[in-house]
Amino acid sequence: MLAILIVGCGVLGLVIGSFLNVVIYRVPRGQSIVAPASACPSCASPILARDNVPVLSWLWLRGRCRHCAAPISVQYPLVELTTGALFAGAAARLGVAWDLPAFLALAAGLVALAWIDAQRLILPRAVVYPTLIAVAALLTLAAAASHQWHHLLVGVVCAAAWGLLFFLMNLASPRILGFGDVRLAPVLGLALGWLGVGDVLLGFFAANLIGAVLGIALIATRTIRRDQPVPYGVFLAAGTLLALYAGPELLAPFQGLHL
Predict the structure, then answer these.
(1) DSSP-assigned beta bridge partners for residue 46
(2) Which of 45, 44, 74 is nearest to 59 (CA)?
(3) What pLDDT band is residue 256 in, cutting at 50, 70 and 90?
(4) Of 26, 42, 56, 233, most Cβ neighbours within 10 A?
(5) What are the angstrom distances between the C-alpha of 66 and each of 35, 58, 71, 231?
(6) Where are the domains positioned within the chain?
(7) In sequence order, which ranges of the chain are alpha helices (DSSP H)?
(8) What is the band of 255 on the pLDDT scale with cuts at 50, 70, 90?
(9) How many CB atoms lie within 10 A of CB 245?
Protein backbone atom coordinates (compact mmCIF):
# COMPACT_ATOMS: atom_id res chain seq x y z
CA MET A 1 0.00 0.00 0.00
CA LEU A 2 2.78 2.45 0.92
CA ALA A 3 4.66 1.69 -2.29
CA ILE A 4 1.55 2.44 -4.34
CA LEU A 5 1.07 5.70 -2.45
CA ILE A 6 4.68 6.75 -3.04
CA VAL A 7 4.52 5.99 -6.76
CA GLY A 8 1.13 7.65 -7.10
CA CYS A 9 2.30 10.80 -5.33
CA GLY A 10 5.47 10.83 -7.43
CA VAL A 11 3.46 10.72 -10.66
CA LEU A 12 1.10 13.39 -9.31
CA GLY A 13 4.14 15.51 -8.48
CA LEU A 14 5.39 15.27 -12.08
CA VAL A 15 2.01 16.52 -13.33
CA ILE A 16 1.84 19.30 -10.74
CA GLY A 17 5.42 20.23 -11.60
CA SER A 18 4.36 20.77 -15.21
CA PHE A 19 1.71 23.22 -13.99
CA LEU A 20 4.23 24.91 -11.69
CA ASN A 21 6.35 25.71 -14.73
CA VAL A 22 3.42 27.78 -15.99
CA VAL A 23 3.16 29.49 -12.60
CA ILE A 24 6.90 30.22 -12.48
CA TYR A 25 6.88 31.74 -15.96
CA ARG A 26 3.59 33.67 -15.92
CA VAL A 27 2.98 34.93 -12.39
CA PRO A 28 6.05 37.23 -12.20
CA ARG A 29 5.01 38.66 -15.57
CA GLY A 30 1.49 39.38 -14.36
CA GLN A 31 -0.05 36.90 -16.80
CA SER A 32 -2.98 34.54 -16.25
CA ILE A 33 -2.08 30.95 -15.42
CA VAL A 34 -5.34 29.75 -16.96
CA ALA A 35 -5.37 31.28 -20.44
CA PRO A 36 -4.10 31.27 -23.08
CA ALA A 37 -2.91 27.71 -23.53
CA SER A 38 0.81 27.01 -23.28
CA ALA A 39 2.82 28.01 -26.34
CA CYS A 40 6.44 28.24 -27.42
CA PRO A 41 7.90 31.59 -26.25
CA SER A 42 9.91 31.83 -29.50
CA CYS A 43 7.41 31.03 -32.26
CA ALA A 44 4.11 31.15 -30.29
CA SER A 45 3.08 27.73 -31.60
CA PRO A 46 0.67 25.98 -29.19
CA ILE A 47 2.18 23.13 -27.19
CA LEU A 48 0.62 19.88 -28.36
CA ALA A 49 -0.71 17.44 -25.78
CA ARG A 50 1.87 14.85 -26.80
CA ASP A 51 4.61 17.43 -26.22
CA ASN A 52 3.34 18.26 -22.73
CA VAL A 53 4.10 14.97 -20.98
CA PRO A 54 6.27 15.74 -17.96
CA VAL A 55 10.00 15.08 -18.49
CA LEU A 56 9.45 12.54 -21.29
CA SER A 57 8.38 15.11 -23.89
CA TRP A 58 11.44 17.25 -23.17
CA LEU A 59 13.69 14.23 -23.60
CA TRP A 60 11.87 13.10 -26.76
CA LEU A 61 12.18 16.55 -28.32
CA ARG A 62 15.81 16.80 -27.14
CA GLY A 63 15.05 20.04 -25.38
CA ARG A 64 13.84 21.88 -28.50
CA CYS A 65 10.53 23.18 -29.86
CA ARG A 66 8.94 20.82 -32.39
CA HIS A 67 8.07 23.72 -34.69
CA CYS A 68 10.98 26.20 -34.60
CA ALA A 69 13.72 24.13 -32.91
CA ALA A 70 14.29 26.87 -30.34
CA PRO A 71 15.86 25.49 -27.14
CA ILE A 72 13.52 24.66 -24.25
CA SER A 73 15.04 25.47 -20.88
CA VAL A 74 16.18 22.55 -18.75
CA GLN A 75 14.20 24.27 -15.98
CA TYR A 76 11.06 22.50 -17.18
CA PRO A 77 12.11 18.90 -16.53
CA LEU A 78 14.03 19.95 -13.40
CA VAL A 79 10.94 21.53 -11.85
CA GLU A 80 8.88 18.47 -12.75
CA LEU A 81 11.45 16.02 -11.36
CA THR A 82 11.94 18.09 -8.20
CA THR A 83 8.21 18.23 -7.52
CA GLY A 84 7.80 14.52 -8.25
CA ALA A 85 10.64 13.64 -5.89
CA LEU A 86 9.28 15.89 -3.12
CA PHE A 87 5.80 14.42 -3.46
CA ALA A 88 7.14 10.87 -3.34
CA GLY A 89 9.34 11.78 -0.38
CA ALA A 90 6.41 13.28 1.52
CA ALA A 91 4.41 10.11 0.94
CA ALA A 92 7.32 7.98 2.15
CA ARG A 93 7.77 10.16 5.25
CA LEU A 94 4.11 10.61 6.27
CA GLY A 95 2.49 7.50 4.80
CA VAL A 96 -1.27 7.22 4.56
CA ALA A 97 -2.13 10.20 6.74
CA TRP A 98 -4.71 12.96 6.78
CA ASP A 99 -2.01 15.64 6.79
CA LEU A 100 -0.25 14.35 3.65
CA PRO A 101 -2.29 16.55 1.22
CA ALA A 102 -1.34 19.66 3.21
CA PHE A 103 2.36 18.92 2.89
CA LEU A 104 2.01 18.11 -0.80
CA ALA A 105 0.44 21.55 -1.25
CA LEU A 106 3.27 23.07 0.80
CA ALA A 107 5.93 21.34 -1.30
CA ALA A 108 4.32 22.52 -4.54
CA GLY A 109 4.10 26.09 -3.31
CA LEU A 110 7.71 26.10 -2.11
CA VAL A 111 9.01 24.78 -5.43
CA ALA A 112 7.30 27.60 -7.31
CA LEU A 113 8.30 30.27 -4.79
CA ALA A 114 11.92 29.16 -4.52
CA TRP A 115 12.33 29.07 -8.30
CA ILE A 116 10.77 32.52 -8.74
CA ASP A 117 12.82 33.98 -5.89
CA ALA A 118 16.04 32.54 -7.31
CA GLN A 119 15.31 34.12 -10.68
CA ARG A 120 13.73 37.44 -9.72
CA LEU A 121 14.25 37.98 -5.97
CA ILE A 122 10.50 38.18 -5.33
CA LEU A 123 7.93 36.01 -3.56
CA PRO A 124 4.64 36.87 -5.30
CA ARG A 125 1.50 37.22 -3.20
CA ALA A 126 -0.34 35.38 -5.99
CA VAL A 127 1.59 32.24 -4.97
CA VAL A 128 2.15 32.81 -1.24
CA TYR A 129 -1.49 33.43 -0.31
CA PRO A 130 -2.99 30.45 -2.22
CA THR A 131 -0.32 28.24 -0.62
CA LEU A 132 -1.25 29.56 2.84
CA ILE A 133 -4.98 29.03 2.21
CA ALA A 134 -4.45 25.51 0.86
CA VAL A 135 -2.15 24.44 3.71
CA ALA A 136 -4.41 25.97 6.37
CA ALA A 137 -7.56 24.42 4.92
CA LEU A 138 -6.01 20.97 4.51
CA LEU A 139 -4.49 20.98 8.00
CA THR A 140 -7.85 22.01 9.45
CA LEU A 141 -9.45 19.10 7.61
CA ALA A 142 -6.71 16.80 8.92
CA ALA A 143 -7.26 18.03 12.48
CA ALA A 144 -11.01 17.43 12.20
CA ALA A 145 -10.58 13.97 10.70
CA SER A 146 -7.87 12.80 13.10
CA HIS A 147 -8.91 14.83 16.17
CA GLN A 148 -5.46 16.41 16.35
CA TRP A 149 -6.59 19.91 17.20
CA HIS A 150 -3.56 20.38 19.45
CA HIS A 151 -1.27 20.06 16.42
CA LEU A 152 -3.29 22.69 14.59
CA LEU A 153 -3.22 25.02 17.60
CA VAL A 154 0.55 24.73 17.87
CA GLY A 155 0.80 25.39 14.15
CA VAL A 156 -1.32 28.55 14.40
CA VAL A 157 0.74 29.84 17.32
CA CYS A 158 3.99 29.14 15.45
CA ALA A 159 2.58 30.83 12.34
CA ALA A 160 1.81 33.94 14.36
CA ALA A 161 5.21 33.84 16.07
CA TRP A 162 7.12 33.46 12.79
CA GLY A 163 5.04 36.18 11.17
CA LEU A 164 5.78 38.60 14.02
CA LEU A 165 9.48 37.69 14.13
CA PHE A 166 9.93 38.21 10.41
CA PHE A 167 7.93 41.44 10.50
CA LEU A 168 10.27 42.80 13.16
CA MET A 169 13.30 41.61 11.17
CA ASN A 170 11.96 43.38 8.08
CA LEU A 171 11.26 46.50 10.15
CA ALA A 172 14.82 46.48 11.45
CA SER A 173 16.48 45.82 8.08
CA PRO A 174 14.19 45.82 5.02
CA ARG A 175 17.20 45.66 2.70
CA ILE A 176 18.24 42.28 4.07
CA LEU A 177 14.78 40.77 4.56
CA GLY A 178 12.04 41.65 2.08
CA PHE A 179 8.34 41.74 2.89
CA GLY A 180 7.76 38.70 0.69
CA ASP A 181 9.63 36.68 3.31
CA VAL A 182 7.33 38.15 5.97
CA ARG A 183 4.29 36.90 4.03
CA LEU A 184 5.84 33.46 3.60
CA ALA A 185 6.84 33.04 7.25
CA PRO A 186 3.34 32.18 8.61
CA VAL A 187 2.95 29.46 5.97
CA LEU A 188 6.12 27.77 7.13
CA GLY A 189 5.39 28.32 10.82
CA LEU A 190 1.95 26.75 10.43
CA ALA A 191 3.18 23.67 8.57
CA LEU A 192 6.23 23.03 10.73
CA GLY A 193 4.30 23.87 13.90
CA TRP A 194 1.87 21.09 13.03
CA LEU A 195 4.84 18.71 13.14
CA GLY A 196 6.20 20.18 16.39
CA VAL A 197 8.05 23.13 17.89
CA GLY A 198 11.34 21.32 17.36
CA ASP A 199 10.68 21.22 13.61
CA VAL A 200 9.97 24.96 13.63
CA LEU A 201 13.31 25.68 15.29
CA LEU A 202 15.10 23.23 13.01
CA GLY A 203 13.58 24.80 9.89
CA PHE A 204 14.58 28.32 10.94
CA PHE A 205 18.10 27.27 11.98
CA ALA A 206 18.63 25.21 8.81
CA ALA A 207 17.41 28.04 6.56
CA ASN A 208 19.87 30.51 8.06
CA LEU A 209 22.73 28.01 8.13
CA ILE A 210 22.19 27.11 4.47
CA GLY A 211 21.92 30.78 3.58
CA ALA A 212 25.08 31.69 5.48
CA VAL A 213 27.16 28.87 4.00
CA LEU A 214 26.04 29.53 0.42
CA GLY A 215 26.30 33.29 0.85
CA ILE A 216 29.87 33.07 2.13
CA ALA A 217 30.78 30.65 -0.65
CA LEU A 218 29.31 32.91 -3.36
CA ILE A 219 31.03 35.98 -1.94
CA ALA A 220 34.33 34.14 -1.60
CA THR A 221 34.17 33.02 -5.23
CA ARG A 222 33.10 36.55 -6.26
CA THR A 223 29.91 35.20 -7.78
CA ILE A 224 28.00 37.91 -5.92
CA ARG A 225 29.00 41.12 -4.15
CA ARG A 226 28.84 41.47 -0.39
CA ASP A 227 26.07 44.08 -0.68
CA GLN A 228 24.08 42.15 -3.27
CA PRO A 229 20.66 40.81 -2.14
CA VAL A 230 20.18 37.04 -1.93
CA PRO A 231 17.01 34.97 -2.44
CA TYR A 232 16.23 34.28 1.22
CA GLY A 233 13.01 32.55 0.20
CA VAL A 234 15.09 29.78 -1.36
CA PHE A 235 16.83 29.20 1.97
CA LEU A 236 13.52 29.26 3.86
CA ALA A 237 12.13 26.66 1.49
CA ALA A 238 15.25 24.49 1.83
CA GLY A 239 15.22 24.68 5.63
CA THR A 240 11.52 23.86 5.78
CA LEU A 241 11.83 20.89 3.47
CA LEU A 242 14.85 19.64 5.40
CA ALA A 243 12.81 19.74 8.61
CA LEU A 244 9.97 17.88 6.91
CA TYR A 245 12.04 15.12 5.34
CA ALA A 246 14.83 14.70 7.88
CA GLY A 247 13.41 16.28 11.03
CA PRO A 248 12.97 13.12 13.13
CA GLU A 249 16.55 12.00 12.49
CA LEU A 250 18.10 15.43 13.05
CA LEU A 251 16.05 16.09 16.17
CA ALA A 252 16.59 12.63 17.70
CA PRO A 253 19.60 13.72 19.83
CA PHE A 254 17.45 16.46 21.38
CA GLN A 255 14.39 14.38 22.27
CA GLY A 256 15.11 14.72 25.95
CA LEU A 257 14.50 18.46 25.67
CA HIS A 258 10.79 17.83 24.84
CA LEU A 259 10.64 20.35 22.00
Answers:
(1) 39
(2) 74
(3) low
(4) 233
(5) 21, 10, 10, 34
(6) 1-96, 98-259
(7) 2-26, 56-60, 75-94, 100-120, 125-146, 149-172, 179-195, 197-220, 232-251
(8) low
(9) 17
